[in-house]
């Protein structure tokens, strides 16, 4: 027994080992029965990725994939899957905390074999991490366990401050007592326990520097918010943490990004999930997340809504959209979850004006403007996009 | 008086405002005397960047630059400098916390003027952030204040855990009670107060994912270390924080990076400073920082030293160096601070083998190998590079 390892991790390992034994037992049974060992798992293809209108989530569809040992096209993939499963199983047993990069290295070797005639063959288990990562995803889908539940760690960028206390490992952490710094979210946010929370909503800021500014003037204290930054494209832990705040504590979640298709996509990843990894959405996405801004109607106004920027400010702050932005906007316009009236207005204004804007343009008007007028006013009047 | 703003910030503002008034007073005096207003400041050029052998730091040399209002070549730069100084001064007075991006936006506008003959001219204050950033650096050099002392904030990636307590803002934070998460370092680390520390050394890990792993198995508890990650190329706050731990607390600092020229450069930025920003080195660099690994002699051995990797492991883990890596290695070999015997051996082995290695190769041998054998053994036997 290692005094430095906490109990939640030990319990999580036991659960994962149990699931592995149950799910892979069938393969041993097949071998014992003299059958062709076969793994069946949902297809992780775009064609098998379905947008669930009701739950507002990207999910894997019903199509299954067979992966058999005695099938020339599938035997390498079959063996890769079992090799990776073994490596993860061993890591779980040995109290290891591998990363996906470790798992790639651990499995990487060359298999040498000779034909009965004597001819020598060499085959690498995998050459690139892309291959081993795909196998890890297959194992996630096959076992129904997220990699975090297998105690696989990764780098994390997400930070949080606010009026709440959490338990992580053996510690209780008061997220309102972080000084000018912040709490860096752990890679296994399902093991966090929410102890008490005194907040009215969650504000997720795309940019770390804007998070620092809002934190420093006490935004979350003034407005009873949990303040989070994803520091760009959100990682899995930040997404899961935000989802849990929304689902378990019932806190509304507002996402603040730059006014451009890249910012919209960040919002989309928080809300719907990533298209290539739809199997995780069910656990990581926050379907009720709201886009608070910066919106195109904030910049230019629309109908009765007045813009937050003057003509002069627009002239100084607006950035001309690049071809890649415009291409991205056309793509997003086709996604089902962007086919609401408000989003179509946003995208149309963007395509007409070919203009984008950074959050910093709002802080240039004064940090107090962003903190004490723009954000509270938009939240109060319901001026967000679902 | 704003209850949410802490006293350290108010004091810092007062100090910065005072320095601004003193330094810029001379220009008002010049105008009052009817002279050509002129700013004199050290040249921030490569030619005026000097490696101080004794202090082992990159510093600005004695060359000065004159920037006058009535000089056609310099008047725009002169006006930009005064414009930026005004914006920073106002932000200090108004309790703002701008970022360099904000400062760019705040100053960005078009000046329109007509010749006596009526011809209309337009001139932008600046077009790109590159320009306004250069002006901020000039003001740092001119005032002798780092941007952090002007309460200019920025995004921060650095994280820390360990047996120490600090005061930041109005809070006391126990860095040994962060659960599986970590403390995200604030953008103004000079305002941090070290309260008590029970550690024998500082280990800085380049990679966040490896930091997560070492943290999770309690490395810093077992070995009485302060564990830090820079999450790649270190930002200013992380560098300043590490420097203060070394200088004020006398803790040895070990830097752990990948075994490649990119990792060496990260070490170099911690130790010597960045070549383009040598004026900050005096405050941000840690001249006594030690490169703990992963070294080329760890991989291949050298003389009596046995390698940590077997022949088989080298075959699986080593990555072929790219042309860019080799070019970088030749550049680094010419830097004065890499011209020590140990570094020349490192670079020579790299150039001969054309091989690089990630830290993860060490964790693939087992996280316990990295934590309980490799690192402690190297620290105990003094197997680092100065």
TrEMBL record, chains A, B:
A Pfam family matched in the record: TOP6A-Spo11_Toprim
GO cellular component terms, A-Z: chromosome
Gene3D superfamilies: 3.40.1360.10, Winged helix-like DNA-binding domain superfamily/Winged helix DNA-binding domain
Catalytic activity of the protein: ATP-dependent breakage, passage and rejoining of double-stranded DNA
Keywords: ATP-binding, DNA-binding, Isomerase, Magnesium, Metal-binding, Nucleotide-binding, Topoisomerase
Domain Topoisomerase 6 subunit A/Spo11 TOPRIM: 201-379
Domain Type II DNA topoisomerase VI subunit A all-beta: 156-198
UniProt EC number: 5.6.2.2
GO process terms (BP): DNA replication; DNA topological change
Residues annotated for Mg(2+) binding in this entry: 206, 258
NCBIfam families: PRK04342.1-5 (NF003336)
Family, similarity comment: Belongs to the TOP6A family.
HAMAP family from the UniProt entry: Top6A (MF_00132)
PANTHER family xrefs: MEIOTIC RECOMBINATION PROTEIN SPO11 (PTHR10848:SF0)
Assembly, per entry: Homodimer. Heterotetramer of two Top6A and two Top6B chains.
Descriptive protein name: Type 2 DNA topoisomerase 6 subunit A
Phylogenetic lineage: Archaea, Thermoproteota, Thermoprotei, Desulfurococcales, Pyrodictiaceae
